[in-house]
Amino acid sequence: MAKTQIILDKNPEIILEELGIKNLSPEEEKEVINTVLEHFNKVIIETVILNLDDNQVDRFKAALERNNFEEEITKITAAVPGLADKIEKAVEDEFALLKKAKGIVS
Predict the structure, then answer these.
(1) What residues does each domain of the chain span?
(2) Residue 18: half-sphere exposure toward Cβ, Cα within 13 Å
(3) Is the whole model's pTM more than 0.85, yes or no?
(4) pLDDT score of 101
């Protein structure tokens, strides 16, 4: 769960290091981190939604609209066997794709 934890912790230095991104200005670092975190949030939310039933999806969407949604989301997702593993795999796959894309662009 290391890569998922890196994303959840939102630690910019570790995220950039993990992706092999170096020598950015502070502004560029901030932009890259924001983009990466936004992307991974979408990956995690998509993975969760794809593994919920219709009732759980409705509860999940309603919880996202509230300011204090973490507890409700935790309850919903904990009810889905194997969901944490699916999220972990999705995050690891995305890290691998980002690393590969970075190598192609560099």
Answers:
(1) 2-105
(2) 22
(3) no
(4) 80
